[in-house]
């Protein structure tokens, strides 16, 4: 009887011990341990010789601890989500929708969460993962992003890992062993893996929650259908845990598909807000600016933002190439990206952009899926996008860290005509639909009234005029500012040529903030780059820009003060805090 071989028995005891070490504070964990003990008891009755003396002692100890454990009250006090938000994630408050989704999941109910890109969907499963204990499975479609997602979660102090086809067999086995031993709380996996080895591993893990990210991929009606998402249909009936489906875009039909395909039971449907007040939205009609072509305007916009990350979207590959070249010739760190480039070039551009080795990517709409760089400071549309959905997705890549970021649209009726021509080959119904979408976009660009109000209104949300974040409500004119910045720099350069010894002066024209803070910010940024390299993570995983800005302006002098800065939790403090504090104390 193979079950009673000493090695098999020792393995089972090890697993049981691992479960025991995960804790016995929930009914589920106790039930699993009791079942494990019972199984081993039966083996012992049949084959006592398979048990070493120390095995028996361990089992006795576990049973004694269970017997002595305090009775479970039906409502064990759980950590308060707000407290976990502050202590683990370092955020002062929830974004719209987050708390409602988290409460739903913690109450054990299935949930469809619909929040725009950048609104903070990851937190809605990461935070419950910490509170629920056990393991949360995250199904995510982009293998290329899993490592970054896991790195970011780990830097936050979350015990996260991933399983996918990129792992060597030995590494994979080790991770599975660690998972079974309860060393992780968050597991990312691709839908393709769920049927394969991840699937059987799940049987041995105490699963608390399944989160399905980019859940619209399950629907044929969605814009990104992935057949492998159909592998997830059995998860609910198999594991009986709450399912959280997350997506940025879900029409009625797609939501219905998600619920059906995942076998969700009476799910709550929670929508975050589509309003992103930190996006400063402006639009310019082509040809209405006195000084120069759209190309000149873009060159000044980019040229006046050295060291800041940006994306310039163009309608055609040809325009992408020409614009990127023009920017590079004028000293901007720019690269082109479109679907006609070889995959290795595209990957390199993406990596360089993420790492901050280039400032600006000039791209067609092919650039985007998987860009979750939080500090993109501006998105320019050289041409009008073909739909409001597309426009919203693209500007949504700016300002994910919550800092002010410009979204600058150039549009014209000629763009509408060109887009109509693109639609020429489609079937008649499809062509009509596209023509209508293009005109909707034109009306949004050219119409009156608050741009944010109209934009979120398109997605069925009603808000008051933003009053501060668009060029209809406020006197925003980034083209004018860029022109002024360029003129001022030219004057300074001329002046310093007239005064050959001026190099000793304190001027630092490219610094992001004025005076002292700017210099300090640069030093903080340099330190961040060093630490990022040392840890092999993208710079923003160390600290986002917003944190560096606050450090530069508030200059904390103690660990307590440092921990009060936006984006600093205890884990981040431990990993990265002390060298930054030393730098701040030096001054
Ligand atoms: P999504 O998946 O919805 O596109 P992410 O989960 O990637 O968005 O989050 C985007 C950014 O928002 C991340 O940099 C994250 O740290 C930040 N973020 C999430 N929740 C909050 C919050 N409550 N307060 C401040 N920043 C947050
Ligand atoms: Mg996401
Ligand atoms: Zn407005």
Can you tell me about this structure?
This protein is of the alpha/beta class. The protein has 25 helices and 13 strands. The strands form two sheets. The chain has a seven-stranded parallel sheet with strand order 3-4-2-5-6-1-7, with helices on both faces. About 2% of the residues have low confidence. The chain binds adenosine-5'-diphosphate (ADP), magnesium ion (MG) and zinc ion. Adenosine-5'-diphosphate binds next to loops.
The whole-number mean of residue pLDDT values reads 87
Oligomer: single chain
β-strand amount: 5-15%
How are the strands of the biggest sheet laid out side by side?
3-4-2-5-6-1-7
Largest sheet: 7 strands, parallel
Topology:
Elements (H helix, E strand, L loop, with lengths): L5 H17 L4 H20 L6 H16 L12 H9 L8 H9 L4 E4 L8 H10 L2 E5 L3 H13 L4 E4 L5 H12 L5 E4 L1 H5 L1 H7 L3 E6 L22 H5 L3 E5 L4 H10 L6 E4 L7 E7 L8 H10 L5 E5 L3 H13 L4 E4 L5 H13 L4 E4 L12 E6 L6 H8 L9 E7 L1 H10 L5 H19 L4 H8 L19 H21 L16 H21 L3 H4 L2 H10 L4 H5 L6 H17 L1
Parallel strand pairs: 1-6, 1-7, 2-4, 2-5, 3-4, 5-6, 8-13, 9-11, 9-12, 10-11, 12-13
Helix pairs in contact: 1-2, 1-3, 4-6, 5-6, 13-20, 17-18, 21-23, 21-25
Provide a brief overview of the structure:
This protein has helices spanning 6-22, 27-46, 53-68, 81-89, 98-106, 123-132, 143-155, 169-180, 191-195, 197-203, 235-239, 252-261, 294-303, 317-329, 343-355, 388-395, 413-422, 428-446, 451-458, 478-498, 515-535, 539-542, 545-554, 559-563, 570-586, and strands at 111-114, 135-139, 160-163, 186-189, 207-212, 243-247, 268-271, 279-285, 309-313, 334-337, 360-363, 376-381, 405-411.
